[in-house]
Amino acid sequence: MRRLGAAALAGALLLALAGCSSEEPAAEPSTVTTTTAVAPSATTAPPDPSTLRGAAAGRGVRVGVALQSDRLDDPAVAELVATQFSSLTAENEMKWPSIETERDEMDFTGADRLVDAADAGGMEVRGHTLVWGQEVGNGMPEWLDGLSSAEVEDELGEWIDTSVGRYAGRVDRWDVVNEPIALSGGVVDDNVFSEALGPDWVAWALERAHSADPGAELWINEHSVEQQPEKAEALIALVEDLQAAGAPLDGVGLQTHAFSGQAPPPGTFAQLVERLRALGVAVAITEMDVPLVGGTTETTQADAYAQIVGECVAAGCEEITLWGLDDGHTWLDAFLGQERTDPLLFDRDLQPKPAFDAVHQALQR
Ligand code: XIL
Hints:
Blueprint: H1 11-17, H2 52-58, E1 62-67, H3 75-84, E2 87-90, H4 96-99, H5 109-120, E3 124-132, H6 149-166, E4 173-178, H7 192-197, H8 201-212, E5 217-222, H9 229-244, E6 251-254, H10 268-278, E7 282-288, H11 298-314, E8 319-322, H12 332-336, H13 354-364
Parallel strand pairs: 1-2, 1-8, 2-3, 3-4, 4-5, 5-6, 6-7, 7-8
(3S,4R)-3-hydroxy-2-oxopiperidin-4-yl beta-D-xylopyranoside binds at residues 91-92, 178, 223, 255, 287, 331.
């Protein structure tokens, strides 16, 4: 397995990503030079095609990673992220229950940190996520339970206004509604939001986010769409309904957690992306991981990554985001109840796996 080449990154960028103050006293220079060396910044240096970020840029595609902000305290992680990725997603720290743990007390510390790191590294930000289709407790604050419809509407409106407003011009796109499709098919119609706002609760959230930052792209985001044909139909119907209602919808995110450790049948992903794009919305992979479960090996994992990413980019996806950086930090170990699922592109020592090469090549094709 090859090692990544050393990245030429500005010291200031690394310090910013590692959360260190750039105001720390600099060491005394031993000589005074007449020319000032200008370190390349992530925004001005030409993209390095040996990186995911550079390969993706060559295709006009973003490549992103989801992280907890404290991981950037590790300079090796900060450097790897800044070198390889052009978009950041907060794995949890922009979710409503993370920020407003207690009603009317919002703490944006972790979210701010990620947005600052993205700015310092010339990365874009995918805001994840304002509203979750599932029941209270699963992605939404527990304290919503028991509120009146008017109170839910007020709280949701204030949450969207405050978070989208806070990052206006800095968060490029929001996953406004996460997982709007019910297991039974159709839009979720039995959660706290549909009960408070009625069947058009998804459009309501999009409108509200649009008012808070008219410049941000607004997305909906769904899981297992490529695995379940009935879910794909329901999602496409929702996009059509939202468009017919004039709701501000820019894109559809496909989470792409490949829980089975395998890609769907060849062509499935491309067809899904093509159908969505034919409706005039942007499409992205927003949360990809491929666990080693059942008979999946590092080689077949790499094949699955290559197939899915290759089909997605060829069909016009504009972003590929991985749900985590390295195998030592993945939600899937707990979610699948397996000691190690090793679902990502980098191993526990931050070294690239065959899956890294597969994605890198798929981005270049
Ligand atoms: C997951 C995080 O990775 C976990 O750390 C957390 O405990 C639960 O949420 N779909 C989504 C993500 O949209 O927000 C989820 O993230 C994974 C599934």
